[in-house]
Design goal:
about 120 residues, mainly alpha, Peroxidase, domain 1, globular
Length: about 120
């Protein structure tokens, strides 16, 4: 049995592609690939296999998560990304932060990483 991914609209997919282009520009201009990758990693790093909780649900933008010692400095990445995120209100923060991490890997010469949109944003912080 293959993996199942959430279904998103064509409008959402187009927004992902446009956001990806904007992210490439930002990351190249600001030379901020390391912090974008770190943001995506720390956002996803809360996932717990046993309880199936945590993970990349966009909650890292909240002050309570940014205040965690391991997330020190990630507020810089959140602030850098916000002007682009505002241009794409259809995209969830969960998808947007993971997309920024993927673009960071690709722009620094890493492999192209398949992106599967459809992450929901958690309301729990």
């Amino acid at each position: 049995m293959g993996k199942c991914y959430p279904t998103v609209s064509e409008e959402y997919k187009k927004a992902v592609e446009k956001a990806k282009r904007k992210l490439r520009g930002l990351i190249a201009e600001k030379n901020c690939a390391p912090i974008m990758l770190r943001l995506a990693w720390h956002s996803a790093g809360t996932f717990d296999v046993k309880t199936r909780t945590g993970g990349p649900f966009g909650t890292i933008k909240h002050p309570s998560e940014l205040a965690h010692g391991a997330n020190n400095g990630l507020d810089i990445a959140v602030r850098l990304l916000e002007p682009i995120k505002e241009q794409f209100p259809i995209l969830t923060y969960a998808d947007f932060y993971q997309l920024a991490g993927i673009v960071a890997v690709e722009i620094t010469g890493g492999p192209e990483i398949p992106f599967h949109p459809g992450r929901e944003v958690s309301q729990i912080v």
